[in-house]
Amino acid sequence: MLFFSFFKTLVDQEVTVELKNDIEIRGTLKTVDQYLNLKLDNVICLNEDKYPHMQSVKNLFIRGSTVRYVHMSSNTVDCTLLQDASRREAMAQSAK
Amino acid sequence: MSFFGFDPSVPPHLRQQNLNQESYDFQDTYDGLGDGGADDALNDETFGATEPAKDFAFANGNHSQPAPVPSQTLSYAQAATHPINDDEFMNDLWGAGNAPATQPRQQQPPMQPIQQRGQPQERTVLSLDEIEAQLTAIDHRTQQPHQPPHPYMMGGMMPPGYGGYMMPMGQYMPPPGQFGYPMQQHIPAQQMHQQMPMPMQGHPQALQTQQMHPQMPPQAQLQQAQQVQQVPQQIPPQLAPLALAPATQAPVPQPESGSLAGVSTSASASASGSVGADVSTISTEPKDLNQFPLLGAKLSSKAAPRRLSFAEMTPEQQAKATKRHEKVARIMNYSGIMNPKDKDFVTRFQLSQIVTDDPYNEDFYAQVFKVIHPKANANPLQQQADQNNSIAQAYLDQSGHRLGGRYKRADVALQRMQQQIQKAVTVAKERPKLTQYAREGALGKISFGSGKKPRQQLEILSKAAQREKSEAEGGVKLTNTQLRKTYSHKDIMSIIETVINNIMTIESASRTNPDVDTTDLWESLHILDHPSTSGDEESTINPFIQALSFNKMLKILPRLFKFLTREQVLTITTLIMSNLENLLVIKHGSYTTYPDQVVPSKILKLVEHYTLTFSKVLMNAVQEFKFNEIIGLLMILIEHNNVSFVSTTKIGLSVITTLLSRAELIKGEGQISATDLSEWSSCYDELFSNLESRIAAIFPPHPEDVDDGSSRENYVWQFLATLSLGGKLSHQRIIVDEVRDEIFGVMSRAKAIDNSDLANLYKKQNLLNNLNMYLVVMGLVADETEIKELQ
Amino acid sequence: MAEPGPNVEDLYLESYAFTTAAAIVGSVDRKIFVLMRDGRKLFGILRTFDQFANLVLQDAVERIYLNDENDDNLSPQRYSEAYRGVFMIRGENVVMMGELDIDTEDDHLEKLQKIPFPEAETELKARQAAKIKTELAKSKTLLAKGLINDFVKSDLY
Fold first, then answer.
1. Domain assignment present for B782
2. Are C53 and B3 in contact (CB under 8 A)?
3. Which helix (H) or strand (E) segment is B444 a member of?
4. Best residue in C3, C16, C31, C55 to probe B by mutation, most B CBs within 10 Å?
5. What is the pLDDT of residues B566-624, one digit of tens each?
6. Which of B277, B366, B276, B375 is nearest to C17 (CA)?
7. Largest CB tally within 10 Å, which of A37, B256, B464, B536?
8. How confident is the model over B643-688, as pLDDT tens digits?
9. Which residues of C touch A35 (CB under 8 A)?
């Protein structure tokens, strides 16, 4: 649940999602669910030439498993807290 | 593999049984479909041809009054345990047209459609003014009769909030004159309402709709036709002129459903902004009014200019508008197939999957992040309220329960959601923990992972951790055979990790109970099980000291010391004092060991981290120490380290300063015994003799560029001040003698900065401030040209 | 540090916004675009969905975009459409879906040449088969070096 929790804090931030098929989409993260499916608003496809139909797409629900990278601004991340949270996660996992 | 990790708690046959149980489960609260298996009438709901409710009335006439809304006085818990309330809420929120299928069926005899046509005549006719007066007096009881027969919901075809398909201003496509007779715009609403159904019967538009959807089953087509007939009845009086009046102006043939869409479109035009998934938006008042179709005055005035502009359109624009119109019509047709109950069901299902035993810990990052980085809103209570309101609003928006978006609505929605969540939580808790393979209801390949516990792709076994474990098991033997235990880098890392884990465990335990057991934490520090002193071989140094070379250990120090007792802190400090030279920042932190007299940047970075963490922690710790303990620490420092070397490092010098200044502070309090004082003076003498003749060396080389004098040498002057403060006059003379060059060096550097150079004037001030911090101890003060006695 | 709240339900209340349903529900009864794992692009009206994000589209149209050079990185010159009617999509096959602006959705088509669907389909199939072939060959070469090519035959989006 660590990354679910992490992405929750990115809601309303602008992110760029790079899919495994190289589509890059920038937009405002609106919601994320436990499968890390993402919902973006005000999307812009960064390679729109390739995908002309994306021009008229207003918002996008992206399936988590097709995402390669999510780019975000570094000041939206609390690294120390993330380290702590990762340790907790690891502890919880090893305790199971 | 199921996309969303379907994890149904109850097998289908059990679900059926559950209907008869008292306790809640999904099906209990989902009577919209749960009992549908055997009932064909469900198709009505599915295909949107629901019969209009018989209490459809704009005037609050003699129709049956719906049950009063359970108000906010009812607690959530109470509400949750009242099965009947559930549907009342539904009525209230979503209108009778979308109430569970069971309810309309109970209320309405099978002959309903026929009765329906006759019904308008039975109603008390109210004037527009009266209606508006009723509407503006908003209160649950008066509101309710108007809300349930929401015109967009009634046919099961038009959910409110069609923001996405608005007619652009000026392109409004006037609905055609499908009613066959001219209408005047200000025809009394009720009158029109009664007239409307008549010309509608057998109207060819019904056929048109059928052609549009050839794939619909015959039954559905039939219902579709009925629906088309019924819908005009449901157009609220205030909207009807809108839909009909254009007949006089632009008799363009159009499919009828299109005209309906047009009405609905304009009705919710201003709502477009908020329809999306925008959680944070709370409806504003003007928008609400327009969503509230009965307050129609505003609408008609808005619609008028659009209607006019259509005549002015170019044929191209008209073609475009026609095309758009058709699209909207297709979207409108069948909309609402997924009704709010369905939406609730899916949502609740997913909520129940998120339910865990320990929600705060599993959501650790987000929860703590929220506390550490609160949004601008200062008042937490207000924030909480806003948040709840916006969640409720989002819920209303997203699930199509848009009935005005008033704040009271939001309250009810919130209440309702809370109920749902309670149910979801209860169900999730009662759900037996199924194994992955037993996933009932899953089709095809079964997933080995889930959202909560993703499939593990890599398994990395920490060898250091393993060795640590095996050594712990055979630990006694090992220390006996080996004279000195050695630690590898990995060992140290694993020790640090254990410490951090222990701290986190203690932290979360201390949140509920301040008295936590810190034994494990203390043992994991390895303070006592391995003595070492400065100059030992690196791998045999006490692991705690070795760990202090790592940034992450330093970072955790403040959190660590919070949980240690005074004695434990003293023990650690003692260990540090005897191992000062083993600390990387001191071992490699002296400029004297480098040919170019420059400490490498890597070490400087570590020094920086030390000043932010270690030095602060030490300073806090020393506050608690008694006078003789300070003396003891200093003695250990002198005994185990080369003081003159340590003093050439920033951290070393500040450690000595910390101890000295604490001693001076206690002395200043004046309750020191004579023996302690004499012990102190011999300790001081010992320290001083170690420093003597090398005091000038504590100054790192001066940089070539303009010296800002601020932090670089600040600590040195601080040390000199403290040392002078503790010493006798003879000591002070020796110090002055040794640092004379530095004193004049500072003055000349200060002088070099021109007074007119305003940008660098602060540097001059810094330089002199540092110097004077020391000189003041001896009653002196310097400016850029001379040293005077302090007045 | 976060203090445990008085009511765990509040926490779940917050979680409402973080469900798949919350992400999709706003698109119901809207014209949407769906990209599927096999590369199909569908345009239609979302009528309903369930907790697996299985979707039901109405008036669905499948569209194929082709570019003349057979290079996926270039913009297409031709397109083709086929009416599919009511289309149910199993959730796991969805790559992404988004709401369309019905006013502009067809604008980009004006620049493209429309060709018959069977023709487009044949050409696309051939291209996909070729792609699978090269990718499988690549997988083999990489595997020989102990590397893995992250390619699945069914992923052609």
1. yes
2. yes
3. none
4. C16
5. 899 999 999 999 888 888 888 888 888 888 888 888 888 999 899 889 999 999 999 88
6. B277
7. A37
8. 888 998 999 999 999 999 999 999 888 788 888 888 999 999 999 9
9. 20
The reply to whether A74 touches chain C by the CB within 8 Å rule is no
Structural domain for B261, as ranges: 12-340
CATH classification (class only), A2-95: mainly beta
Chains interfacing with C (3 or more CB pairs < 8 Å)? A, B
> Which residues, listed in sequence order, are joined to residue A70 by a DSSP beta bridge?
A17
Q: C42 with C61: CB under 8 angstroms?
A: yes
Closest-approach residue (CA) in chain A for C94: A63
User: Which domain-ending residue is among B321, B340, B359?
Assistant: B340
Contact A61 C23 (CB under 8 A): yes
For C98, the closest of A20, A52, A59 (CB atoms) is A59
- List chains adjacent to chain A, taking adjacency as at least 3 C-beta pairs closer than 8 Å: B, C
ipTM: 0.91
The verdict on residue B390 lying in a domain is no
Domains in chain A: boundaries: 2-95
Distance CA B106, CA B127 (A): 32
Chain A residues within 8 A of B501 when measuring between CB atoms: 87, 91
Looking at the 3D structure of chain B, how many domains does it have? 2
Chain A residues with beta carbon closer than 8 angstroms to that of B350: 33
- % of chain C residues with pLDDT over 90: 48
* Chain C residues near residue B343 by CB distance under 8 angstroms: 21, 25, 28
Of the candidates B340, B373, B402, which is a domain's last residue? B340
**pLDDT-derived band at B448, boundaries 50, 70, 90:** low
Q: Where are the alpha helices (DSSP H) in chain C?
A: 8-15, 20-25, 117-144
- Domains of chain C, with CATH numbers? 8-114 (2.30.30.100)
Direct distance between the N- and C-terminal alpha carbons of chain C, in angstroms, rounded to an integer? 44
Q: What is the CA radius of gyration of chain A?
A: 15
Window 28-47 of A, Cβ < 8 Å to C: 30-35, 37, 39, 43
